[in-house]
């Protein structure tokens, strides 16, 4: 039933996912509300960013032919918001991931071989900018290095423009610090602290949520690797970049200094692409429904526990 609705890309699908997203936000908001006006404003900014995620995710997927013509990607993205509503609670990580999505939009379109210099600059610029909100997103520069390996075509200028992307953000940061903080480079600009204590995940509800999502991810990834070999040769590199992006997102989650569940936000896009690719290959409708039902039942179980 659910997968049938999203099996084709239709305008009504946007309405459905946005309604579900708003419901997930409202439930989280009233569960966490503290009455502070500033937190209310930040919460609604988080909702706005979440709604924008839907459109940019669909744009990235459809524009680069990362899946067939359906809406499984935005469906899965929305379900992850339902499973992990804590994502709404950290504006810094949401803004950082939004900027990472802008970078991924550029990197995953490299297969067109058009405007490569501009795309490499933009990708590095957005990643460097995102690190001002969440330092560990600098790890996505690894993605740029791998992309350079695929597409640099012995053109040293791509490396140079990538460096200029970092330098541009650095210069803007220094100017900001001089104007507003009266110093060049305060230590507070970057925080490379990490935390390998996972005790915050010890509740039964969180264990179930993470177990189900990681299990689905591993299952989908196995088939994703299998299907990459069957993809158009031109598109294989960007599918490899999707896999690498998912691994980087997992590393960021592991290193996250404060583990509340909001760090899952970086995992949402690659997870949605990988699982959407798996679902579209499944012929048995009942199996598709079970796959999606797991993500729906998880937050319900969490509420009951």
Q: What assembly state would you assign to the polypeptide chains in this entry?
A: single chain
Over all CA atoms, what is the radius of gyration? 20 Å
Number of domains: 1
**Percent range for helical residues?**
55-70%
Number of strands: 0
Mean pLDDT over all positions: 89
Look at the helices and sheets and give the structural class.
mainly alpha
Which ranges are low-confidence, i.e. pLDDT below 50, for 5 or more consecutive residues?
A: none
- Largest sheet, described in full? none
Sequence-ordered SSE layout with sheet pairings:
Layout (H helix, E strand, L loop, with lengths): L1 H4 L5 H22 L4 H27 L8 H12 L7 H17 L8 H15 L10 H11 L4 H26 L22 H25 L7 H20 L12 H12 L5 H20 L1
Helix pairs in contact: 2-3, 2-4, 3-4, 3-5, 4-11, 4-12, 5-6, 6-7, 6-8, 7-10, 9-11, 9-12, 10-11
């Amino acid at each position: 039933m659910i997968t049938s609705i999203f099996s084709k890309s239709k305008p009504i699908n946007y309405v459905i996912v946005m309604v579900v997203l708003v419901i997930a936000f409202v439930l989280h908001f009233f569960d966490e509300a503290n009455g502070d006006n500033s937190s209310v404003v930040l919460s609604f900014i988080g909702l706005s960013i979440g709604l924008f995620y839907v459109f940019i995710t669909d744009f990235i997927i459809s524009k680069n032919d990362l899946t067939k013509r359906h809406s499984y990607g935005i469906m899965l993205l929305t379900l992850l918001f339902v499973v992990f509503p804590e994502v709404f609670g950290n504006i810094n990580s949401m803004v950082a991931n939004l900027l990472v999505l802008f970078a991924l939009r550029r990197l995953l379109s490299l297969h067109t071989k058009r405007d490569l210099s501009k795309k490499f600059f933009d990708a590095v610029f957005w990643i460097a900018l995102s690190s001002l909100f969440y330092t560990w997103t600098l790890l996505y520069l690894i993605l740029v290095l791998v992309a350079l390996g695929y597409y640099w075509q012995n053109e040293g200028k791509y490396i140079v423009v990538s460096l200029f992307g970092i330098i541009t953000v650095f210069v803007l940061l220094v100017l900001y610090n001089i104007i507003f903080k009266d110093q060049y480079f305060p230590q507070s600009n970057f925080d490379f602290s990490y935390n390998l204590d996972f005790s915050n995940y010890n509740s039964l509800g969180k264990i179930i949520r993470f177990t189900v999502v990681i299990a689905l991810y591993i299952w989908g990834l196995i088939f994703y690797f299998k299907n990459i070999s069957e993809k158009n040769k031109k598109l294989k590199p960007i599918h490899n970049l999707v896999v690498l992006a998912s691994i980087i997102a997992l590393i960021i989650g592991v290193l996250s200094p404060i583990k509340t569940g909001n760090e899952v936000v970086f995992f949402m896009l690659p997870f949605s692409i990988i699982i959407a690719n798996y679902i579209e290959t499944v012929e048995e409708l009942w199996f598709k429904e079970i796959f999606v039902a797991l993500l729906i039942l998880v937050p319900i179980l969490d509420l009951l526990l």
